[in-house]
Design goal:
Structural class: mainly alpha
Radius of gyration: 19 Å
Helix content: 25-40%
Mean pLDDT: 92
Strand content: 5-15%
Largest sheet: 3 strands, mixed
Length: 321
């Protein structure tokens, strides 16, 4: 089962973009939904024990790729994981900590969920299950797997996972760099990585978010750090948008708190993955996210364009979480 599901992780899906509002089709941020190329294959497991800095734990590659096991490199950094987070429930409910990592740090391909309010996590899982929360690219595996899992997970399991992740403190693991030219990248496995060949490419109208150490991130080390390259001038522009000074949207702090760290009903947005933020803004804008929380967001995003979303995400990523 694990082997076959791992195959899914590296398979190519026929993906489709289904914006609810056709006028936004040209604005679809394809760069925020990376898909591995057809020839992408994970490195074979040679049986050797892999390690990461600051940990005495060792795992083989196969162990770090087991969908029903969350590699726990730093058990001293967090409380005991509930079973649903640590091992999931076969055959249909993967370990929550596999994709989102043992400490909820996630990655650019999905979401960091440490510190999210319990009520918000419960609402999102209900929206996935009902179909109210979908994705602009239905065939992309991280979101496809999340939607499928929501159909089988029980309320008790969701509550256990929500309580665990909500109690964790988000890690400051991201640095933001404004740049016109960036390191040449490639899609590693639903996210971008630095080719480390000394060559560069233009950034253009996108955000390029990558792990600073690809091997450690792929080993699912919760201490992995990231760099996000954003367009020159986008942070200042994003600040004006977030503070409601442009007339395009109200101040984000009105719902997400003065420090943008959320409340009982609204998630924190400071310091979050800018790639993830752009995906969510686009999906709120097009109506792909249509749950109760999305209804509240709709008026705030209706006038945002592609560059606005990039700027907002760039600024939010610089804020302390």
């Amino acid at each position: 089962m694990v082997r076959s599901m791992r195959g899914l992780l590296t398979s190519v899906f026929i993906v489709s973009v289904v914006p609810v509002w056709p006028a936004l089709a040209a604005e679809f941020p394809a760069w925020a939904y990376p898909v591995p190329p057809p020839d992408h294959k994970p490195a074979p497991d040679d049986g050797s024990i892999r390690r990461v800095p600051g940990s005495s734990v060792g795992h083989t590659l196969s162990q770090t790729r087991d969908l029903f096991s969350a590699p726990d490199w730093h058990p001293q950094d967090h409380p005991k994981m509930p079973d649903i987070v640590a091992t999931g429930r076969k055959p249909a409910v993967f370990a929550c900590g596999f994709c989102h990592r043992a400490e909820g740090t996630g990655g650019p391909e999905n979401a960091g969920i440490a510190g999210l309010p319990v009520a918000y996590i419960l609402e999102q899982m209900a929206d996935y299950k009902s179909g109210a929360r979908s994705t602009a690219m239905p065939g992309r595996l991280p979101q496809k797997a999340m939607i499928a899992l929501s159909k089988s997970i029980t309320r008790d399991e969701v509550e256990a996972a929500a309580a665990y992740f909500a109690a964790l403190k988000p890690k400051a693991n991201l640095r933001v760099v404004e740049a016109a030219s960036v390191p040449q990248s490639f899609v590693a496995n639903w996210f971008y990585a630095d080719r480390r060949n000394g060559q560069s490419e233009p950034l253009g109208r996108r955000i390029l978010e990558m792990p600073e150490d690809l091997e450690h991130f792929e080993l699912r080390d919760t201490r992995s750090t990231f760099v996000a390259y954003v367009p020159v001038g986008s942070i200042k522009r994003g600040q004006a948008l977030v503070e409601g000074k442009t007339g395009k949207s109200p101040p984000c702090a009105a719902c997400h708190g003065d420090n943008l760290k959320g409340s009982a009903d609204f998630p924190p947005i400071a310091g979050r993955s800018p790639t993830y933020i752009v995906r969510q803004l686009y999906e709120f804008r097009t109506g792909v996210r249509a749950g109760p929380g999305a209804v509240k967001m709709a008026p705030s995003v209706q006038h945002l364009d592609h560059d606005d979303m990039i700027a907002i995400a760039a600024y939010l990523a610089t804020r302390p979480n």
